[in-house]
Amino acid sequence: MPRTCRVMGPVSTSKIGLPLEISLILLHVGVVGACTVSVVQPRYLEVDSTSETVTLECTFSTTGCSSKQPRSLWFRCGAQQPEALCLDGCRNKADKFTVEETLDQNRVSLTVNRVSSNDSAIYICGIAFPHEPAPRAKQTGSGTTLAVREGLLSREVHSLLIVIIALFSVYITGVCVIFTVLFRVRSKSNSSRSRETKEDSQKKSARRIFREIAQELYHKRYVETCQQPERDGTYENRRALPTSGRP
After folding, report:
1. What are the DSSP calls for the chain, one per residue?
2. pTM given for the model
3. What is the mean pLDDT of the chain?
């Protein structure tokens, strides 16, 4: 059963169809001829170009098939010619594509590494039982349209912003620490100054009281000293008066 693959622009599914005879590729996997396979894929997936990787999921179900493990295949229809992916398995993560199979759970996935805008395309998952003669033993999904959008910032600028934010966070933390230390030092200084001011005030108060007492004692001493000659003069005058009054 032939299937066609639409040619894409950056990720547009235009009507210019380059027929991809996926069934012919599936026929190379095994002879047409005995079970039913159903393949399900997400219809659309959009990622930013700053993403390092993106994984496309594919699940399938079987009816009346043998217990032998099926084979998974991936196809891509994009701006270039339609192409079959990972015919050698793509197990190395250093490759552009990496295939992971969990066939006992009826699940396979294709990971696109080092994502770029050129990876925008329709990715089709195929499942085939090579030893089953039934025509529906080899089926493909409807395809997942992968749209890689150019980010507002390049990866270099993105990394630079992360570094700047980290440095700014360190700077803010340092300023807060310095402010806290200075605040504590200033609080201690104000406390010491307040204590010294209180002690000075107490000393000044004691000095003032002592000065007042000294002035009062001095005043009393001065008064007594001034009054003593007056008393002595009065006494002498009284003694001289009878002598001067005789004939």
Report:
1. --B-EEEESSS-EEEEEE--BHHHHHHHHS-S-S-EEEEE--SEEEEETT-SEEEEEEEEEEES--SS--EEEEEEESSS--EEE-TT----TTSSEEEEEEGGGTEEEEEEES--GGG-EEEEEEEE-TT--SGGGEEE---EEEEEEPPSS-HHHHHHHHHHHHHHHHHHHHHHHHHHHHHHHHHHHHHHHHHHHHHHHHHHHHHHHHHHHHHHHHHHHHHHHHHHHHHHHHHHHHHHHHHHT--
2. 0.52
3. 75
